[in-house]
Amino acid sequence: MDSVAHHQPRWLRIASTTFVVVWLIIAAFPFLWTVWGSFKVEGDFFSRETWLNAVFGVKTTLQTGSPFTWAGYYGAWVTDGLWRAVGNTIVVTLFVTVISLTFGTLGGYALARSGRRYSFFILIVALIFRAMPHITLVSGYLLPFFQLNVWGVLPTAIIVLVAINQPFTLWMLHSFFLSIPKDLDESALVDGCSRFQAFRLAVIPVMWPGVITTGLFSFLLAYNDFAVTSMLLSEDNQTIVPRIASFLGSIEQTGKVMYAVAAVVSATVPLFILVMFFQRQIVSGLTAGAVKG
Amino acid sequence: MPHRTFLMFILPSLLAMLVFIAAPVVSVAIQSLFVAHDKVMVSVQSCGPFGCTTDVHVDTKATEALQKQQPLGKFNGLGTYTDRNHLAFAEIGAILSDNSGLGDVAVRIYALPFYRALSFTLVYTFVVTPLAMLLGFVIALSVNAVSPWIKGPVIFFSLLPMIITPIIGSLIVYWMIDADAILGSALQDLFHDPNLYLKASPVLTWIVLLCYGVWTNGPFSFVVFYAGLQMVPKDTLESAMIDGANRWERVRFVVMPYLTPLATFVALVQLMDNFRVFEPIVGFNAQANASSLSYSIYSDLNGQFSQLFSSAAATSMLTILGVIILLIPVLMRTWREFNLKAA
């Protein structure tokens, strides 16, 4: 920080600070506003007169006797049964993350340790698969899944999400395993281990930072997915995101917008917690692919 | 590593990708060549006291039998690709041979569903990607310039728009720009126009969607560029300074060359992600004013009366073609690098 190159004129300091503060507001305000507004009634959150109503909860006080109300949350969780979707989401994200990582560590390790031409081909093909819009694949699943009678159930969505997730997981773990010195498992091989034993005894104990980072992104993919879960799950098996999307059709008529707002805020909470506890891992995951080239 | 061991390790992953990514692409390709069967019609003559009439009915049983016999439908060749809802060769020909100027051509081609989706997809991809990278770069430079204690909170709040579920993020913004909500009414006051309604016109909807795209995509560039900035060597910056480079010249000739490989990586990832833009259109309820390739596949599959599998399949194939065209420069470069390394 004492470097000469870091010395700045006053105006530049002020300009940068202003810009950072403005960006901070643009990035954070929509979330804070919606969290705050989710405890109000619709007349306040969508106030015709003034936005100050949403801040002080004028109509909320008139209607419920207090400036904060849990009505939206009650409606979303109990009346509209969001808790069932939450259960499905936990099952889907848990299984997708665990299976993706299991497949991905095995494959990524093999790709990192084999310098052959076909391993390069697999990586390139994975890159093309990574770019494939998910909905194009979904249009290929529907007819076969109808015929095999596996449409609509959680295991189908889980295995599809695992597969869609593989290209990314392979790339990420491949570059992570490249950073683990080869000598580690090769000395195990010299000591008479088989390749699998070397992997289990020498590599698994040191791979957890990379696996946790990759796991966060696998979780995000499964949690954020809309294309697959909305098209491949029946109504009873829906996860949170397609459940909220299907709210949207009906709320316009029934005046249940606040249910949807509360549901949206509920769905944001896990992501909030994730960023809070794993900020460092997410950042290192984002930059890993880039910085290493 | 021997071939056998390699295969054992990679098999689960490879199998998952072959069955659930490669096979569906083949299935889509085949499906796009077929169309649904015509309904089997039968004429029934019914005679009453006032003479005989002939009615035409759908023979449900025969239709189902036909469906069972050939579940893919009727072979249509490339017919689906060239019909009005996709590449629309006939319509394009008609427009080109008879029109009143370039504007007319553009308007009429935009009215065709596939070109409507394609134009929004391309505009979104090629407007959002550079703007988001620029935004990310400027945030990274600014954060780097101000005191380090602000770094933590900025990264924390910047990650939110990026990792938020696309549908949920767009809903949050959508509710704020409602005419009765805080941003929508603020804009009405700002422009003194009580009828200003961001969801009403195609132009405004496009602008909203593009701004949303920059908002969610910017943070990724910021995080990557910020990490890159920490690795620009201080000595080089200082020697540039001694050589008389001003602040801008140092950014232009020292910092930017260091960040070029990162920028290529960010551009690649964001081009791929933006090309499949889909959820914001659902979240912003914008289908009347904007459509994308992914969205039109979704709406074909989500049809109210019947699912249009062939139409969705044809659009999917055209989308995949687009992805491959987008990736060709990258693939060629990687191939050359690999060969250099091998040599």
Structural commentary:
The complex is a heterodimer of chains A (293) and B (343). Chain A has 293 residues and is an all-alpha fold. Chain A folds into 2 domains: 4-75, no CATH class; 81-291, MetI-like (MetI-like fold, Orthogonal Bundle). In chain A, 79% of the residues lie in helices and 0% in strands. Chain A has helices spanning 10-37, 42-45, 52-56, 58-64, 71-79, 82-113, 117-131, 134-148, 154-178, 182-190, 195-203, 208-224, 227-232, 240-254, 257-291. Chain A starts with 9 loop residues before the first helix and ends with a helix. The model of chain A is unreliable at 1-5 (pLDDT under 50). In chain B, strand 2 and strand 3 form a beta hairpin. In chain B, helix 10 (202-229) crosses helix 12 (247-275). Chain B folds into 2 domains: 75-111, no CATH class; 117-342, MetI-like fold (Orthogonal Bundle). In chain B, the strands form 2 sheets. Chain B has a two-stranded antiparallel ribbon. A two-stranded antiparallel ribbon of chain B has the order 2-3. Chain B is mainly alpha-helical. Chain B has helices spanning 3-31, 60-69, 79-82, 89-97, 102-110, 113-145, 151-163, 166-176, 182-190, 202-229, 234-242, 247-275, 279-283, 293-301, 309-342, and strands at 34-35, 41-48, 51-58, 74-75. The interface between A and B is large, with 107 and 110 residues.
